[in-house]
Design a protein that fits this description.
heterodimer; A: mainly beta; four-stranded antiparallel sheet; B: mainly beta; seven-stranded mixed sheet
């Protein structure tokens, strides 16, 4: 079956530090991969996505590359801001049910000034 | 902008009560979803609907039912609330066919506490 494993948080960084949040997955077939972000008091919103191997998704300075050989989709940002403090979820589409997602456990990021 | 609204942000109920959580979307989306969010477990799918009056069980449907009488509205029902149903409940909607991914848009969530 499908599963997504994320590094446990919280991750605490100082402003302008480099961010990596690890995500690995197991899946049947060739899933699409996503990062969703949840800001305090809000619902989830799509941050970026990649639909096939070696694709790089990017948005708002965040990037993630679909690595089929290591079954990973790590989220990176070169210089975090306080406003990036949120919970980040890695997710993938399910085999034969592409509209349904499997989510990881979420990683809380706290950025200090 | 797509808007998904949920009837309550916070709800407190007693064990054994019947609980209704309502979700409304304004973008004429075919698909609607109910998830629960628990620390360390991420989001888990409870039920999914791809059309009016249609529903599919997700990963954890036990103790829940759903209703979709109108395209824009998807209700989650706890027939007899229990303390282990204390959680954050998130509704989402998307367009398109169930076989293909389209971005899911989420509501702000309802934090339910069952005493």
């Amino acid at each position: 079956g499908n599963s997504v494993t994320q590094m446990e948080g919280p991750v605490t960084l100082s402003e302008e530090a480099f961010l990596t949040i690890n995500c690995t997955y197991t899946a049947t077939g060739y899933p699409s991969l996503f990062w969703y972000v949840q800001y305090p008091g809000e619902g989830l919103q799509l941050l970026l996505k990649a639909t096939k191997a070696d694709d790089k998704g990017s948005n708002k300075g965040f990037e993630a590359t679909y690595r089929k050989e290591t079954t990973s989709f790590h989220l990176e940002k070169g210089s975090v801001q306080v406003s990036d403090s949120a919970v980040y979820f890695c997710a993938l589409t399910r085999w034969n049910a592409g509209n349904m997602l499997t989510f990881g456990g979420g990683t809380r990021l706290m950025v200090k000034p | 902008d797509v808007k998904v609204t949920q009837s309550s942000r916070y709800l407190v109920k007693r064990t054994g009560e019947k609980v209704f959580l309502e979700c409304v979307q304004d973008m004429d989306h075919e698909n609607m979803f109910w998830y629960r969010q628990d620390p360390g477990l991420g989001l888990r799918l409870i039920y999914f609907s791809y059309d009016v009056k249609m529903k599919e069980k997700g990963d954890i449907p036990e103790g829940y039912s759903v209703s979709r009488e109108k395209k824009e509205r998807f209700s989650l029902i706890l027939e007899s609330a229990s303390t282990n149903q204390t959680s954050m409940y998130l509704c989402a909607s998307s367009s398109g066919q169930p076989s293909s991914y389209n971005e899911q848009f989420f509501g702000p969530g309802t934090r339910l506490t069952v005493l």
